[in-house]
């Protein structure tokens, strides 16, 4: 099936130091990129829709993406006994430089669940970085229903009331003294109550 894909190349300007390449497409197959995907992430049937912009600068390369991914398959026994298929909304901006990878923001939407991430990672040894993850407040019942059926399993009839939100921050510094190189801070705010089991 033919798919419409467009591309634009923008020269440097007063607001942009380097060239920018903008790609737009609708339901573009990602199967050619399957060998680049991490183990357990299957892109054979994945389709991407939206816009991807790459800006090449002298100091860093910036990537901005807005759109959706449909048909992503997760094949990992820790998550579910059988592969599960997901449709995910994506809104992300990150920068890659010689020294670091910086995630300005990365938002992933799966049903009622809206996850936002930001952080940075130094590209040279020793490993140093930080990652912040937030789950926006949402109905407990809707969040539970957002999980794939294969994950909900026998708990599918569970009915919930209340709301749930959470955050986590992971900081890693392998140059720190022993015992101080890893810090994990989490917080959850919820009023979830099971009304039917």
- Per DSSP E runs of 2 or more residues, the count of β-strands stands at 13
What is the radius of gyration computed over CA atoms, rounded to a whole number of angstroms?
20 Å
* Percent range of helical residues: under 10%
Largest beta-sheet details:
11 strands, antiparallel
Classify the beta-strand content into a percent band: over 45%
Mean pLDDT figure = 91
Q: Spans of 5+ residues with little confidence (pLDDT < 50)?
A: none
List the secondary-structure elements in sequence, H or E. EEEEEEEEEHHEEEE
Number of helices: 2
Based on helices, strands and strand pairing, what is the structural class?
Answer: mainly beta
Amino- and carboxy-terminal Cα gap:
45 Å
Label the overall shape.
globular
């Amino acid at each position: 099936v033919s798919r419409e894909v467009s591309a634009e190349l923008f020269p440097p300007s007063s607001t942009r130091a380097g060239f920018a390449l903008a790609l737009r497409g609708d339901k573009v197959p990602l199967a050619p990129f399957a060998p680049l995907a991490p183990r357990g992430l299957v892109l054979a049937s994945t389709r991407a829709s939206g816009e991807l912009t790459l800006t090449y600068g002298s100091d860093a390369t910036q990537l901005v993406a807005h759109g959706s991914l449909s048909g992503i398959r997760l094949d990992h026994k820790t998550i579910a006994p059988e592969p599960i298929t997901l449709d995910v909304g994506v809104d992300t901006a990150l920068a890659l430089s010689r020294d670091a990878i910086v995630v300005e923001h990365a938002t992933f939407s799966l049903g009622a669940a809206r996850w936002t991430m930001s952080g940075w990672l130094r590209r040279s040894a020793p490993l140093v970085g930080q990652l912040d993850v937030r789950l926006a407040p949402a109905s407990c019942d809707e969040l539970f229903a957002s999980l794939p059926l294969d994950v909900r399993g026998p708990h599918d009839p569970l009915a919930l009331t209340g709301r749930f939100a959470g955050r986590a921050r992971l900081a890693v510094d392998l140059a720190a003294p022993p015992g101080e190189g890893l810090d994990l801070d989490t917080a959850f705010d919820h009023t979830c109550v099971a009304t039917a089991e």
